[in-house]
Each structure stands twice: as structure tokens, then as C-alpha cells.
Amino acid sequence: MGVRIISVVGMAMATALLAAAVPASAQQPAAPGSASQPLEDLVASLPVVPDVDFGYSFAGFAVPAVDGKDARGCGKRERVLIASATRAPRVGPGCTLSGGSWRVDQGTRTVSNARAIDVVPVMSAKTAWDQGAFGWTNAQRRSFLTWYQSPARECAVPDKGTTKGPCGYALVTNAVLTPQITDLVSQPNWRPNCSEVAAAATITAAWGLSLEPQAASKMTGRVESCNERVRVRPMNTRNPIKPTAVGNPLLAPGTANKVWQTTEVLDPPAGPPITGDLFGLHIPDIYGPKPSLDYGWLRLWDAKTGWEPLEQTRGIYYWKWIDDAIAYSEAQGKKVIYVFGDTPAWAGPNPPYPPTSLDEFRRYVDAIVSRYGARIDAYQVWNEPNFYVPETESLANLVDMTEVVHDAVKGRGLPSLVLAPSTTMRTGTAVGPYFNEYLQPLAERGWPVDVFTVHTYPRAAGGPQQQSHAIAKFKALLDLTNAPELPVWNTEVNYGLAGLQEPKRAIEGQEAQAYLIQTFVDSVRSGITQVDWYLWFPTFFPLLGIQTNPTTTQTNAAWAWAHNQLVGSSLKTCATHREAVICGFTRGGRDFAIAYTHTAGSEEIDIPKGISEVCTVDGQCRPINTNLTATQLPQLLR
Known about the structure:
The protein is α/β, with parallel strands linked by helices. The chain has helices at residues 13-21, 39-45, 76-84, 125-130, 138-148, 194-206, 213-223, 307-310, 320-332, 358-372, 389-392, 395-410, 432-444, 464-480, 509-525, 553-566, and strands at residues 37-38, 90-91, 97-98, 102-104, 109-111, 118-121, 169-172, 229-230, 279-281, 297-300, 335-339, 378-380, 417-424, 451-455, 488-493, 530-533, 570-577, 580-587, 590-597, 603-606, 613-615, 621-623, 627-630, 635-637.
């Protein structure tokens, strides 16, 4: 559907983008604790961030004593049932309940037998942890559970249409529960009714949490048919919860929906100019056809430039591959990332694993840095160590390796950057131990890196939205360890790769074009300043879902389109509505926007004031003065 925008002109385009992407009713949510507001507005204002799915311990919430029985002998379950009954039950000895009536299973059934009802939290302690409570103090977590264990307390003041009852719980029967699910929000088949949406939204808002993308999508899809109005009462006022870092609008899709005094918002200053450094590339075969793609960085990986091809026999170096790669980059005017890695058989158990001897690694690093010095613009400590290092119990050695690279580069007074090892986000089980056990000791050594790096390959079925979520999660994890605000680079990305019990997925045509363009736009709006696409190859490369080679004319055209639109411009703001994304940029005093959807569907959005033309990736432009149908393939508005 179309959505109303306010009148804006010229440099006020950023305000228009916020209004264009968000329903008019969502532009001015009531302040917490003030007048009631439509439930739809509250849901639209909540930050949407992927969950931080490691590090949880229920003991960290310090279970309060209020879970015990009251004077009637009623425990938590019975107290919730009494407060939620549509017809009050009789309370007998030992808090046996009879004669009552309850609406259960998301309001689809009426039950009069209390013993047939399960009381399920709308949001468990685990879900709260994943969505922001990881950054709370123990006292704040204890306050959360103390409130949650008090069933008579409501976090929403119901108006017409809202079911009265405890905010934090739902009444269900075994027929609708997935086994071993601890709350409604995380249940795969959750189809929320309006009361449950109200409960989840008010808990999230009252406690300063965020929503997991799938839960947010379910709530957004349901709330349009709800008539509820709610008033949020901030909880834990004696120990207020600070907004968590994951609420930053540039961390993930949806979080821009937090700022709504649109008639008062000043035109935000533009960010720094986007340079050609945003576009990086891997070229394993530098002797083949030169890329037709315009790029700023060449990352040397899978290009016969690692340790194993260099020093197959200890002390005997074969420099040709690296010499040729450096000369190639200099001839093309490109900057170079050199990745330390590929351990020779004599130095370790397997090429992906770090060496067993730190002294041998130091000798290798010194050989590279002393030979090439500032001809290499950035030195990266290792490639995807979180896939291998925890298994070898050598995380402490990896911290030492980081310091070795730092000292070799900075000790020589080189301007070259030191890049942290690249962390792959494709599987959460490989991320948690790495961050906890690598970054914390790194902090003790004063953070001897200039840039953090991440790899955002999604699962085979995933797309740009999932890679954006990986960036958001990576940044949230950095915040969790109190890491300094250093640049974050994405040093490998592509789509459709087989793995994690999913087959490879070939991505071609306009879908491949959309993925590639969205990757770079999403990276800019997520604060990523450098992205190394994997890869350019002379022929078909079986591993990858999206091919970039001399024959992939559509994909190559999409790269050129993204490069032409982004380089030299500055980001002003982005906003989202459902699956639609619209980002405003400025270049040379002229504003423009790029709009798209993260899914294969379409979304109707109003165009910002001053826009008169829409252009497609293939260069076809047409006048426009009404709604735009945003599609998966990005469009240029100017």
C-alpha cells in the first residue's frame, strides 16, 4: 500500500525518506509512560536485530524468590491462571482451581479444566538475553525476572479490544506447543494473536530490548488487523536499562524506525564520501583475463600467495607468486591485502590451522613484511580462524600471532594497516567461543589491530538480508566485548554456497544483480567501509552461487551500476518498511535515493518530495510522481 509523506524540499530529503518508508501513523509514537498509542505504531518503533545466540546462562538472571507459593498455596502457574480467567475460578485447598473459564491457544478455544492448560512465557530469559539482556547488569536481569514472576503486573494498559491479563504469559494446550520450546516468541510455528503481539511488543519496549527478524515479521504481519491501543510503562525504574548498542540504526534493517518527530527532525549531515575502496575483489588467477569490474582493493587469498606455496621446504622461499601479485596490483593501481595463512606441512597439522610454533610464524611474518613493506597496504593476521582455532585449543597462540603481525608492521614504522583475523558468521557455534576467548585477551594487549574483519556468507538459501543480519550480529558481539570503535571490513562474501546440510544454490539473472547491488548498499548503511567480493575467475567457478567472469554480463553490469551510484556520494539516511529499504544519498549537492526489497516480492512506497524520475539497472528511466513499486532489483530515484 502507499504511505503518506510530509512535505519536504531540497536538503530535507532524509526526513522524507523516513516518512516515505514508514506508515504515517508510526511517525510519532507516544513517549513511554504517556498517552496510549496504537499497537501498530509501537511494533513499528521496535529495533530489529538478529539474536546473539551464545553466552547465555540462566544463572546470570539470579532467579528471584517470588516464584514461591502465596498464602493460598498458589504458585506462579496458578496465579497466572487466576489473573487470566474470563470467568473467575474457585480457589480450593492447595490452590486447586475449579469452575473457571479460560481462552487458550491464541484465543481459538475456551477451556474450563485448569489442569489442561500450560502457562508459557511470551519471552523467556534466553530470548531476552539474545535480544539485548546480554549487556545488562546482574541486577537488571534479576529485576526482569522479578517482574516476570509477578503475574498480576501488566506492562500494557489495555484499551478497547485488548484482552485483560498478565502481560508476560500465554495460555496454551499441548496441541499447539512445539516440544522443548521455552516461550512463544521463539516458537517456529508461532502465529500471534493481537494480545500476544501486544505482550511481546510492550515487553520489548519496556525493557529496551530488540526483536529477532522472524518474530518481528510475524508481529508486523499480524498487527495491521489489530485495534489495540497500549501504553508502555518503563520497567526497572530504580535501575534503568541503558539502550544497548544493537539499537544503532546503522546496525541492522528496521532499526531506523526509531526516530519519528518528522516535522522537527533536522536534515542529518551526510556521512563521509564513499570511495572506490568500498569495492574489493579476489582474483585467484592474475594471469587470466583482467576483470572488467572497477575495484579498489585486491585481497590475496586462494591465489598461491600463502605460506605453503612460499615455503614448502623450511628456509627455501619461492617468491614468484607474491612478487607477480604485488606487481599486478601496482600496475592496475589497486591496494593490496595480504593474508597470512596456509601453514606448510612441516609447520603445522593442516594448512587452514595456525602453526604449532609461534617462532616459525614470526619468521614467516618478518620475511613477508621486510620484503614488501608498504607495498602491501594491509596485513591480515589469518583467514577464518574460528572454523579451526577452537578445535586446536590455540586461541592464546592466535592472540600472540596478532601481536607478532602488529609488531612487525608498526615496529618498522609502516603506514600499512593490521587487520584482525577474519571471523566467518555462517555458523553461530563457531563464533561464540572465538569472540569470548580471542577478543578478551586481545583487549588486555591494547587491541593491536587497526580494523576488525568479518565474512558474511549466509546459508545457501540466504540472501543480502541474512548477510546484513550477520554484520549486525558481528557488531553486537564486538560491543559485548567492549571493543573499540574501529573500522569493520567484510573481506569475503558471496551467496548460495553449499554447506550446513543445504545444497549449493545457483543465483543468476536479475536475482544475482539484486544480490550484488544490495550487498554494497546494505554494507554502506551498516557502516562497512570495504567489501571484498569472492571472486573474479576466467571461467565458471563451481563453489559459488553468483559467478563473476568475462561471460556474466548481467552481474558485471550490476557491479558497474552499484559502483557508479555509490562512489563519490555520501549516505544521508536509510529507512525500512516491512521488506522495503530506501536509502538517501547526496552527490555534488544533488540528492538521490536507492530503493529495493529484500525479498522477491514488491512493496508500494510513496516517493520523496522532489523526486521526478525512476531509473532501472539497465538504464531505462521514466517520470514518476506517485507511488513506487519497490522490487528486489534496486531502482534509482532522482
